Amino acid sequence: LAASRTHWRTAMHNITTWVILADAGHARIVAMSGPGKGIEDITSFDAAEGRKAGSDVDSDRPGRRTTGRNVASRHAMEPHRTPKEIATEEFERTLTAYLEEAAKHKAFERLIVVAAPKVLGDLRRMLDGRIAIDTSLSKDLTHIATHDLEPHLRDIVNF
Prior knowledge:
The protein is of the alpha/beta class. The chain contains six helices and seven strands, in the order H-E-E-E-H-H-E-E-H-E-H-E-H. It has a five-stranded mixed β-sheet with strand order 3-2-1-6-7. Strand 6, helix 5 and strand 7 (135-138) form a beta-alpha-beta unit.
């Protein structure tokens, strides 16, 4: 019986949980190391380009083309992806690379992603098969201060 109690004590260790809070241009990573340990800021990422309006990112007007024989009939050529979409994708790739590196170094054991709906879908797709997402929540909490996060995360994290 004494041996099983000792085994139980060594098996019970605090699990480090990382929570990503993200929108299209900003992400914070916070960590919890177990019940009663609180929330600790790990790092943050900012992609100022991802948060600007599309017209603010690239102020050049789209190119123009003519159609048919009527030279007066000109239409704006729309890019396949907007500069804002490109900046957001680059931002998400940077965040994903950081998470992959952290996972290699076993910086966390559980990963929770709380993100604006589109960003959540993008991150799920980018992390699929690379890092397991333990839980996710489709919500933008990037504007919530770290010390005020607990009530928002209580249903998905054991405090």
